[in-house]
Every structure is written in structure tokens, then in C-alpha cells.
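Entry
Fold in C-alpha cell form

___
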Amino acid sequence: MKYLHSNLKFLREKSGYSIQEMARVLSIKNRSTYYAWERGDANPNLESIMKIAKTFDVSLEELLKKDLSVKRKVKQSLSDSLYEIEIVPRKAAAGYSVYFDDPEWSDQHIKKMSIPFKPPIGEVRAFPIEGDSMEPTVSDGSYVVAVKLLDLNEVKDGNNYIVVTKDDGILFKRFFKKDANLINLLSDNPRVPPREIKKQDILEIWRFYMALEPGK
């Protein structure tokens, strides 16, 4: 188990998961258990090790005996594999907040795009970005690849999220909880004023994973 603990942290971070989310994926009741595995304070049992290997699509030997951070860097630079994710086309973005939970609308309007890297675990979708409110972090015309969160409590203040709202549609902002009911959404562009929304007006929230810049 020479590399187990460091591999657990590497794989989790590469997949864009928090410790709490990882514990949920592996059906671990206490998030501190997974944290202890990463630190090397405890070892998972065989059943958990097998589940971890399956979750991250690695062999037991790789998980236990190889430094995956080195292997994955080499593999990524050499691989020409393409992976499909869902994409919200620009023309469909305006209607997304109205029909986001309508399977028939989604089948007609949500498309697929190929990316040259393996996406993080979970429901992944690419959203169009319009305007300069998040520059220089993300420029106008980009697509933001994001992972859907099922629980608003998983959101961390100061991080970037795609926020789907009832009245304002798809927003990409920095998220800050003002109080139990209000959310402050901040832009990285200092010229754009902050926006305040009610927690109850959030339809979906997606954690930022990466941006696909125009022409790339």
C-alpha cells in the first residue's frame, strides 16, 4: 500500500470531488473516515479498496503500488481518446431554466460534445458563457464544464459555480452565502456589480471544473 493514501487524494482532486462528496459516492457515513485514509491514519478494508478502484477505473495494483500522479500525466499527454459530455447550446440557453427538468425538451435541445480528457465523476454538462463578467477567469464565448451538485450544502464560499435561477437563467459567478436565505453572486470583473438572489430561486447548481476557451 505504498501509494494508496497519496493516490486517494490525487484521484479525488483530479475528479473534482470534495471529501464529503467522495464519502457519499463510496457510501461512507463519516467523511472523516475518507480523510483519515488520505492522510494515512487508517486503511480502507478490501471491499472499500475494490470499490475505490472501480469508481476511478484503475486496477488494484495501480491503486496500491503505483504513483498515479506520474502515470496519469504521461497518459494524458499521449492519449488521443475523446470523451462525450452533454452541452447546452447557446440557442437553448435562454429556455434552460424553464425546461431544465423536462426530459422531452432535454432530448431535443441538449447536445453532445467530445473532449480530449476524461471528465470528472458525476453528471457533467458544458454551459455557454456570454459577456465579460467573469474575465479574466473565463472569457466571453467560452463554455464552462461543470459537475452537478445535489445538495446546496456542498457549495463552498468563494468558489465558482454555474447557478441556474428562476428569473435570471444561467449564471456563472462566485458564490457567497449571505445568510440562511440570501446568496451573493460576485463577478471576477470588478466593473460588474454583485448580484443577490434568494436561495429558493436556485433551480440547479453545478461546480466549475474547467473552461473551454473559444477556438480551443
Observations:
- Residues 74-79 have pLDDT under 50 and may be disordered.
